[in-house]
Amino acid sequence: MTRREFLPALAAAGAAGNMLAGAGVNDSVPPAFLEKPKLGRIKQSVCSSVFARGTAFEDQCKLAADLGFQGYDLQRPDKWPILRKYGLLSTMSFGGGGVLPKALNHKENQPAIEKAMHEMLDLCAAANSPNLITFSGNREGISDEEGMDNCVQFLNRMKAHAEEKNVNICMELLNSRVDHKDYQCDHVDWGVEVCRRVNSPRVKLLFDIYHMQIMDGDIARRIRQNIQWLGHFHTGGVPGRHEIDDTQELNYRFVAQTIADLGFQGFVAHEYSPVRDAVASLKQARDIWTV
After folding, report:
1. Is 279 exposed, middle or buried (CB count within 10 Å of its CB: 0-12, 13-18, 19+)?
2. Does the chain have fewer CB atoms within 10 Å around its N or its C terminus?
């Protein structure tokens, strides 16, 4: 998203936030969400990629709710009233955290992001959205140590607000080998060290299992070792980011059981692109993670 695109989106976010905040924090949880049983021990949500192309957003929400999902990831506040209509939470909110190539690791990006993130933390709290996504940004010539220092300095300025509002700021782990060349937060150890230095219960990682299988592997052990710093998960088959079934190399059922056994209380969102019937694939993904 360019700066020209971001400013109108932020204005729309403010308008949506006013509607949501008017009801108060407790009232902003959709009643259908409170009545909906979890799918096993893990709370599951969806991303837009799992639906058939051309499916209207409201139809996506209805299908997700009908299949028992509790939330929808990566939507801006202007879409939150539709989520609420179907008893879904915004489980990983988007907007205010910068954009993937240009984010926290370069100081010149930070003033605009800081202002927008403060506003989004307030909106997330009013809507009971538990997480706000952010990114390291691409290296663009800076060292991993300098990029880490800059991210830590920024997050240290933001953590008090996140703690006050009980919203997690989640930096996404992405692969720089296949999909996001030059992205800096591309290894578990780098992202965890950022979180350790900031040392806040509200600064965590979005552990994208697809991306970290490509970069680091050893998924279950890395999750076990670092669960305190992990605020959210995304799924996707390797290779290709398609279905999470037996056509790919990870045993997602085992990964799901590992996370559930750790007592993880956050959300796992499906973010693959189906190559067969989208509804059947989504039902299968839901069932794999119902442990």
Report:
1. middle
2. N
Dist CA 241 CA 272 (whole Å): 5
Give how far Cα 220 sits from Cα of 93, 119, 149, 185, Å: 26, 35, 28, 19
Closest listed residue to residue 47, CA positions, set 270, 256, 283, 291: 270
- Reference 48, options 10, 79, 84, 16; nearest CA is 79
Helix/strand/coil for 243: coil
Share of residues in the chain with pLDDT > 90 (%): 87
230 SS3 class: strand
How many domains would you assign to the chain? 1
- DSSP letters for 130-183: -EEEE---B-TT--HHHHHHHHHHHHHHHHHHHHHHT-EEEEEP--TTTTSTTB
Encoding tokens for residue 104?
A: 């926290």
What pLDDT, in 10s, does the model give residues 86-119?
999 999 999 999 999 999 999 999 999 999 999 9
Q: In 3-state terms, what secondary structure has residue 234?
A: strand
Q: What are phi and psi of 217, to 5 degrees?
A: 65, -160
Instruction: Quote the domain boundaries for residue 278.
Output: 3-288
Question: How many whole angstroms separate alpha carbon 187 and alpha carbon 209?
Answer: 11
> How many CB atoms neighbour CB 218 within 10 A?
11
| Inter-residue contact 25 to 125 (CB < 8 Å) | yes
Q: How far apart are CA 150 and CA 206, in angstroms?
A: 19
